[in-house]
Amino acid sequence: MTSRNWVKFFISTLLLGGLTTGIVGFIVRWSEFKPFFTDFNLVEIVAILFWLLGVGFIFSLLSQAGFFAYLTIHRFGLGIFKTAKLWNTVQLVLIAVVLFDLVYLRYEVFAEESESLLPYIGLALLVFIPGLVVAYFKSQQTNKTTFIPALFFMVVATVIEWIPILRANEQSWVYLMIFPLLVCNAYQLLMLPKYNERSLKERESFERRMKGKSNKVKQKPSNA
User: Fold this and answer.
1) Distances (CA, A) of 32 to 28, 41, 99
2) Residue 50 clears pLDDT 90, i.e. is over it
3) d(Cα 29, Cα 17) in Å, to the nearest integer?
4) Global pTM?
């Protein structure tokens, strides 16, 4: 990817994370922010919006760091396990382990006496179902072999990025963080090939222009 397209990719993901957090923040913490809207306190509303945008930028940076870390890990995985089939099997096992831990460990640590397991399963499904959808579109965009790696990234990487808030177990923050992470991760996964393709076309166009200039210099008659 060219540096210009990389900057565009970075900024677009950053803005997406900020905007998503801004929207989700007002929804999940509406009980806190409602008085500012009923009183039409524009100064407070704008201040909260900028705060949410800043928080969203942080979430986006975590997402981008996780994405590029995964690209490196994916290459290492293919190198270590030699075949894509074996590496995909390992990824499926890791997906299952992460989802199980997301339900069981959180239930063991945070559940109150006689509390149902369903909310904890629902939280895992909140990651898994969007992961399936994004992985499906990724496989349609490229080929079927990308389904499991895409699902692995959407589930495992998202949960790892989510861990600081999961440990705190503050419900509003849990939901405030997960949606921007899912949106940013899905965006990066689906848009990276388009940015790479755009960079390739720009590079080919540049090479054609340089080749054309070189040919013109060669064809220019000599003054000797």
Assistant:
1) 9, 13, 31
2) yes
3) 17
4) 0.86
